[in-house]
Specification:
alpha+beta, three-stranded antiparallel β-sheet, two-stranded antiparallel sheet, 2 helices, 5 strands, 42% helix, membrane, DZANK-type domain-containing protein, transmembrane, transmembrane helix, DZR
């Protein structure tokens, strides 16, 4: 809802003048833009964020643009990136106990390498996006 600057009356979002007093409410932006890095909202003619220099995307009111940078999908990715290699280490130990040393060693080595890479990538992404 748009508020009239003269009389304070509520008007529809698409109105250009107040229905009660006739004051001009200003131009109607068909859409707005939002900075993907800092979350500031800009009019549709803006191209780059004034605050951080980030790219602007079309702002959708129905989309939740919170700037917390944590959601459940990212949490699940961290869990899966650690869980699968741990399962690989456990399976490697089982194969070594069964005297299948080559398969067990390769599972353990691959799992440790994947854990190291996932930790490195998560630290890299946290430093880039914070």
């Amino acid at each position: 809802m748009r508020i009239c600057p003269k009389c304070g009356e509520l008007n529809g979002e698409n109105r250009t003048e107040c229905w009660k007093c006739g004051s001009i409410l200003g131009p109607v932006d068909k859409y707005k833009k939002i900075c993907l890095k800092c979350g500031r909202i800009y009019p549709q003619k803006a191209e780059i964020c004034d605050e951080c220099g980030g790219e602007l995307a079309v702002y959708d009111v129905d989309t939740n643009y919170n700037n917390t940078k944590t959601d459940s999908s990212v949490g699940w990715l961290y869990i899966v990136s650690i869980l699968f290699p741990v399962v690989g280490i456990i399976l490697g130990c089982i194969y070594i106990a069964r005297r299948e040393d080559n398969l067990g060693k390769s599972l353990i080595i691959t799992s440790v390498v994947v854990i190291v890479i996932s930790i490195f990538m998560s630290l890299l992404f946290v430093s880039l996006f914070s």
